[in-house]
Write a structure and sequence with these properties.
The chain has about 150 residues and is an alpha+beta fold. About 35% of the residues lie in helices and about 30% in strands. It starts with a strand and ends with a strand.
């Protein structure tokens, strides 16, 4: 079941674990979810969805409204032990549906070039992928989904 995440979900967000061995971006996603997402939702900065299965938060997706035409997807993460069940795809699809309903034209994500799962997920939605022009290290890619 997918639903809105908000301040009432602080404990679930702080307990959320998604880190995968040898995947440094999952450590960053986990840290962002645990330490920053609840505060951002409390202050009304950003939006988030959760995916619950068996009454447990199994996935998290969050985005920021850049402007009326562009949203920035900041995280799509699946709980450790619940990967490869379509949760990430369902959450990304829900973000895109909300964006379409609000007349948004682009949903962008910044993805580490070694994060094959997230690159595959964005490819599923026909994302245009290019080097992130704001990254001088060339480690990150900009994935843009046109709605």
């Amino acid at each position: 079941m997918i639903g809105e995440l908000g301040p009432a979900h602080r404990a679930e967000l702080e307990a959320f674990r998604c880190a995968g061995f040898g995947q440094p971006w999952t450590d960053l996603a986990e840290e962002m979810i645990r330490e920053h997402l609840s505060d951002a939702l409390d202050r009304g900065i950003g939006h988030a969805l959760g995916y619950w299965s068996d009454d447990e938060l199994s996935g998290v997706a969050a985005w920021i409204v850049n402007n009326e035409r562009t949203w920035r997807s900041v995280v799509v993460a699946t709980r450790t032990g619940a990967k490869r069940r379509g949760i990430g795809q369902a959450l990304k699809s829900a973000i895109l549906e909300r964006a379409r309903e609000r007349g948004v034209r682009f949903v962008v994500s910044v993805v580490h070039r070694d994060n094959e799962q997230m690159l595959h997920l964005n490819a599923h939605f026909d994302a245009h992928v290019e080097p992130d022009p704001s990254d001088p290290t060339m480690e990150y890619l900009l994935c843009t989904i046109v709605l």
